[in-house]
Amino acid sequence: MEDTATAAPHVMVLPFPAQGHVTPLMELSHRLVDRGFQVTFVTTEPIHGLLLAGGGAALPDGIRLVSVPDGLADGDDRRDISRFVDALFGCVPGYVEQLIRETKVRWLVGDVNMGMCFEAARKLGVRVAAVFPASAACLGTLFKVPQLIEDGFFDDKGFPKRHGSFELAAGMPPLCPSQMPWSIDGPAEGQEVGYRMVSRNTQAARDHAEIIVCNSFRDAEAAAFQLFPSILPVGPLFADAELRKPVGQLLPEDTGCLRWLDAQPHRSVVYLAFGSFTIFDPRQFQELALGLELTGRPFLWVVRPDFTAGDLSEAWFDEFKDRVAGKGMVVSWCSQQQVLAHRAVACFVSHCGWNSTMEGVRNGVPFLCWPYFVDQFANRDYICDIWRTGLAVSPGEDGVVTKEELSGKVEKVIGDEGIAERARVLGDAAHKCLGEGGSSRENFDRLVDLLRE
């Protein structure tokens, strides 16, 4: 029988089933294994399959992958966010409760966005540590929602009642009521479902979590951490300092792009990646491609198989790739952390998802911001207005970012020595927070000590 006095402490880690959530919680799991923990990493069945296909078999001995149903059938559209989260609410908590009984863990380390499982864990005597994979400003704003409703910014279903933007505090991104974390395109009932999920999960974190940590660092969000001292930064998260273990990827990575980068001049390459959700219509896609060609610079562009909605001519795209062959490289997915750490990268054209933002910041890379939805607009404001480490594209009156706009802004970002220096300084601050005596390191130590109790 195992000696419980010497057995490695065992925790269950539960991310929301999406790329931007799986990656940071897997990175956190690697850091816990480094400290002697055993981790049961729980994802939904579709995500579980993608993790295994993406290299899950190479995980360290301390991490065990386990799956639960997500409440949808194989052919259902998991990009229908409202239907997806509704199914998760109804299905996942019961399966997680069953897993907790079977694994006999002492702690659930759960994504705030899976807060619907926290009450069940507490009823079984399992303690809860909450992890927020986005910014402290975003989570703090969610904490303030009841007050914002009372102040007349939203109704009780999350719909905006005021126009324009407002600030919670100086040094935090301004908030636009129509660009909240539950704001999604589609029917009104979808927004309501999103608002209910966000509200319940946030309240569950406040009610049941003994500690709340986030993937950020103190220098990046000083005002937010001052306003919300209960949120502890432990980031920027990464699997290991040498980037030998790009983890939590749900799509196969093209490693050939790293060899291609090796052949490029220092600080010459425009890197473009828009995360796992962004979709462009064919016209915008073509303008983007032509804008890259117009720069005349080497570029590495991540184009997922589902990146466009509508009928983009394959022949047109093939002709484009033929024209830029040798100058540009198009891949379906890559190890972004390794790319951003590469000496050849000059700037990052990004959707401003928080993981991408932290990865760019940590490597001191200037940004050209092209946000798509939810918190990405606030992250853009951090980059452009607060940190001043990048610029943003400006769509025309028809909503399209032209090739001239993209090309011109790329040149401005790369040519701005002030942006480059501020990006370097912020990157140095991130490393300092992660180093010995740094605030993120100390907060992570605090989390580890608590999980050992």
Question: Which descriptor suits the 3D outline?
Answer: globular
Strand residue content: 5-15%
End-to-end distance: 21 Å
Number of helices: 17
Mean pLDDT: 91
Enumerate the spans where pLDDT stays under 50 for 5 or more consecutive residues. Answer: 1-5
Describe this structure as you would to a colleague.
This protein has 453 residues and is an alpha/beta fold. It contains 17 helices and 13 strands. A 7-stranded parallel beta sheet has the order 3-2-1-4-5-6-7, sandwiched between helices. It has a 6-stranded parallel beta sheet with strand order 10-9-8-11-12-13, sandwiched between helices. Helix 10 links the parallel strand 8 and strand 9. The longest helix has 23 residues. It is globular and about 60 Å long. The protein starts with 9 loop residues before the first strand and ends with a helix. The N terminus is likely disordered.
Task: Detail the topology: elements first, then pairings.
Layout: E1 10-14, H1 19-34, E2 38-44, H2 45-53, E3 63-68, H3 81-103, E4 107-111, H4 118-123, E5 127-132, H5 136-143, H6 145-150, H7 188-208, E6 209-214, H8 222-227, E7 231-233, H9 256-262, E8 269-273, H10 282-295, E9 299-302, H11 314-324, E10 328-331, H12 336-340, E11 345-350, H13 354-362, E12 367-369, H14 376-386, E13 390-392, H15 403-415, H16 417-434, H17 439-451
Parallel strand pairs: 1-2, 1-4, 2-3, 4-5, 5-6, 6-7, 8-9, 8-11, 9-10, 11-12, 12-13
